[in-house]
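Repro:
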Amino acid sequence: MNQTITGRIKASTAWADPNRYGRSDRSATGRWFWEIDRVLLFMLALLIGFGLIAVAAASPAVAQRYSGGSVRIDELYYFYRQIAWIALSMPVMIAISMQPRERLKRLSLIGAMICLVALALVPWLGTEVNGAKRWFNLGVGLFQPSEFLKPFFVVSMAWLLSLKETDKSLPIFTFSAGIIGIVAILLMRQPDFGSTIIFAAVWIAMLAIAGLNMRILIGLGIAGIIGVVLAYFFYDVATQRIDAFIFGAGDNFQTENAMRTLTAGGLFGMGPGAGTRKFGLPEPHTDYIFSVIGEEFGLIACLMIALLYLGIVARVLIKLLDEESSFAILAAAGLVIQFGLQALINMAVNVQIAPSKGMTLPFISYGGSSMLALSIAMGLLLAFTRRNPYLSRSPYVVKWGGENLRG
C-alpha cells in the first residue's frame, strides 16, 4: 500500500524530472518560465507594444513643439528614446519577477524609505517643470521619486497590514494612516494632487481587502470627500482644476482640445501619421497620448486598450481568489489596483470626465522614469502571482492529470 502511494506521488511530481515533458532546465530561469503567469506577461507585452506605436505617432508633434531657432529635433526622437527606455526597463521587470517574495519584501521596504527621503528633498533640490517640482535632473533623464514610491509603498503596506494576522493587538491601522498622511503632505507640497488621490485610494482599497471594519471604511470615505472639499477651498491647485472642470472657469483648453482630438478620427482613425490635431495638444506624448491614439487609430483602438487594462486587472484579481498568503494577496491586489486606477484617471481626463491631473497612461505614455517605475511595479506583480502550475493551493494536495493525491 505504501509503495503504491509512493509511486503515485512520484508520478505526480514527475514534472520536476529533467528528462520528462521537455522541462530539462532546472535553473532559476527554467522554474521562472513554468511558474510565471504567461497570459499576464503577454498582455503587458502587448500593452508596451501599443505604447511604442502610440509614441511613434505622437513624436512628430512633440518634436515640432520643442524645435525652435537653431534647435531642430528629429521627428522620431522621442520614439527612439522610448525604445531605449524599454530596452532598459524590460530586463529589470523580468529580473524582479524572478526573485522570491521574502527578498522582494525586504527590498521594497528599503526602496520605500529611500523614496520617502527623496520625496522630502524634491521641493529644495528638485527641477521645476510646468510649475511643479516633482523631479530630480540626473542629466540622462528626470527621476520622479513619487513614481518609484508607488510600488514600494504598496508592498510595504501589504507587509504591514499582513502583520495583523500574527498579532491582532498591533495598531496597524493607526500606523498605516500616519504613513499615508506623511506621503500625502509630501506630495501636495510639489504639488501633485493626482498622485495623492491614487495613494489614498489604493490604501483604502487595501484596508478593505485586509478586512477593516466597514464602519471605519465608510468613515474614511466620508473623510476623503471632506478632504477634497477642504482642498478646493484651501489648496490652490485643486481650486483651479475643479473650477476649470466643473464651472469652465480659467484655462480649460487642454481637456477640451484633447476631447476634440480623440474624436477627430472617428471609429477607425485617420491613419498612422495622418493626424493633425495632435500638433495642438500641449503634451501629446504623455498626458494626452490617448487622444492621439483616438485621432490616428480610432475609437475602436481606444476601446481595445481600455479593455486590455481591464483584462490585466481582472486577470490578477481572479488569480488571487485561491491564493493563501495574505501578504501576496494584498501586495498583488494593491499593485494592480494602482495600475488600473492610474490608467482610468488618464483616460477619464482625455474624454473630459475628470479634471486634468498631469498623469501618464501606464506603459503607453512616453517617459523614462515612468517606464522604469512601472516595470518595477509589474515585476513585483508577476513575482507575487507566480505559482507552481502542478500544485494545488492546499499544501496537502498534489494535482496531476486531474487526479488529487493527498499526503
